[in-house]
Every structure is written in C-alpha cells, then in structure tokens.
Amino acid sequence: MQYDFKSLPDRWNTGAVKYELMAQAMPEISEKKDVIPFSVADMEFIYPPQIREGLKKRIDQSIFGYTWPTAEYEDAVVGWMERRHQWKVKKEWMVQTPGVVNAFFQSVRAFTQEGDGVIVMPPVYYPFYAAVQKNNRKVVENPLKLEKGRYEIDFDDFEKKARDPNTKVLLFCSPHNPVGRVWTKKELEQLADLCIKYDLLILSDEIHFDLVLPGHKHTVFATVDRPIQQQVITFTAPSKTFNLAGLQLANVMIEEKGLKEQFKEELAKSGQGMLNAIGYEACRIAYDECEDWLEQLIEVVAENHNSLKDFFDMHLPHATVFPL
C-alpha cells in the first residue's frame, strides 16, 4: 500500500501548539498561513489510516470508561520492541505515563533527593534542565564536543562529573535531541562502563528511536553488552513515530523491580491513575498494523533531509547540517 505523504492538513485554529505559538509571536506572518513552524517536534504528515479506521471502531463502542492496558496492548508493545529494536522486553517491566517528559520529571523526583546532581549533555532538549531545576536538583553539565563537524560525548569530562559522590543520575537522550546523533554501540558501551563504575542510574529518553535514517542503527541503551540492565530506565512512546503526541501516552521500561515500585509510588504521590483509552488503542494499532507506514515515512524524511542539506550547501553554505 502506498501512503499519502503529500497532503498537508490545515492545522490552523485547531489548538495545535506550534501554530498557536507562532500566531502569538509573529501575527504578521501567521496571517498569511503559508509558513510551517518548526518550533515543536510533531509532523505535518497525516497519521496512518489504520489508526483512523481503528479509532472509529473504538469510538463506536460508545463507552469511554476507566481503562487499563489490555493484554493485546501489551503484546503489541512487546512485539514492536523485539521486531524494530531486537529488545526482548517483558510485560511486567512496563509502566504507562501521560508522556515521556512527564516520566522523566517523575523519575528525577523518585530517584534523587534535593541537591543531588543530575548529568545532562548540552545542547539538549530544554525539559531536561527543567526536570532537574524545578525539582531543586543540581544540573551537572557534560557538554558534547563538536569535533570535525560532528558532536561527540566528552568521556573524560563525563568521568570527572560522574566521580563526584553527589552525582546520582545521567539523564540521557538517545538519539540525541537536538543534534540528531545516533549513538554507536561502542559509545554506549563506554558510557555504560562509566555509569557502572560510579553507580549512576541512567534515565534514557529514547522517544525518537524509531525515526533513524538509513545508514544508521539505533541501539537501545538497555541492550548493550554490559551488566547495565538493572540501572537503566528507558522512556519510549509512539508519539513521535506516528504523530500521536496529543494522545498523551508513553511506555516506561523498568527491569529492576525495586526501581519500578519506587517509580510507581512517585506516580501515586502525584495522583496519576489510569490513562487515555484512545491513546492505548492508537498505540496498539500503530505497533500492530503500521510498520509499513513507518518504513515509507523514513524514506520520505530521508529524502527531505537530503534536499534540505543540498539547499543549504548551495544557498547557505555557512549553515551546517550536522551528520547523524
């Protein structure tokens, strides 16, 4: 089946955050309605038709009562992780939250105390800072190095920061947002060795792990060939992959039972209960039925990436499109 990646829906006056923000900030541009804002990472592509049809059936059931994840939902998540990422997760590792950002905010509270150090790797997605600072923890910066036009982890600096006994957690982004690096298995193994050596808990935001361009391979941090699995918490979601951010659903994978219970206790403190019934069903359909849509999407995104790079090389040579 060939999917439609040409039609762009009109998102004005729908509450779409990036359009509303642009209208507030630049009304003179917004009135023309011919500019696409790049401020928030959701796509302009229409989500897969299988999700639309499946949600219609779910709506026709006429009841939206309190909803748990079903066995079919859990099977879909387990199957996706194994097929796409060669990661054999177990159902009992899963905890659902309203989103990845929500999950790592909750994790910072659950696994650190006020004043504890949390390592981040700037330039990085701004909520990483907020999760630390708004919870009265200490941001410990381990800046990425720009070497020969490519961002790299500064392992020497990381070890200096990790050695401090006040440093408790690495808040990690993989693939990295915003620089786009897809960390190699070797890089992850080196990082894992240091986290084991200094007993750091790893909070690994892997929300973009399905959107890796041809020529690159994402490795789930928890799968590296190191005894790291008991100290990694992995944040995943279908939202970036299938353009479903508004349905507010993430799957957090926690293999170590004590950490999982600690995390769930933090969720309970904030009053989190059952989640969005439609979000559950959209995720199940996406993972069970929409893999071919994703394959075509990646081809389109890769083509767009190459076109943009060619344009910059020709017309804006001082602008840099960093390699992944």
Output the structural class: alpha/beta
Largest sheet: 7 strands, mixed
Order of helices and strands: HHHHEHEHEEEHEHEEHEHHH
User: What is the 3D shape?
Assistant: globular
CATH superfamily of the largest domain: Type I PLP-dependent aspartate aminotransferase-like (Major domain)
Mean pLDDT: 96
The largest sheet has its strands arranged as 1-9-8-7-6-2-3
The number of strands is 9
Q: Strand-residue fraction?
A: 5-15%
- Total helices: the number is 12
CATH architecture of the largest domain: 3-Layer(aba) Sandwich
Helix content: 40-55%
CATH class of the largest domain: Alpha Beta
Q: Which parts are unreliable, with pLDDT below 50 for 5 consecutive residues or more?
A: none
Description:
This protein has 324 residues and is α/β, with parallel strands linked by helices. It has twelve helices and nine strands. α3 crosses α11 (277-289) and α4 crosses α11 (277-289). The two termini are 30 Å apart. It has a seven-stranded mixed β-sheet, sandwiched between helices. Strands 4-5 form a two-stranded antiparallel sheet. The protein folds into two domains: 1-40, no CATH class; 56-287, Type I PLP-dependent aspartate aminotransferase-like (Major domain) (Aspartate Aminotransferase, domain 2), CATH 3.40.640. It has helices at residues 17-25, 27-30, 49-60, 71-85, 100-111, 127-133, 155-163, 185-197, 239-242, 257-269, 277-289, 291-315, and strands at 94-97, 117-120, 138-141, 145-147, 150-152, 167-173, 201-205, 232-236, 250-254. The mean pLDDT is 96.
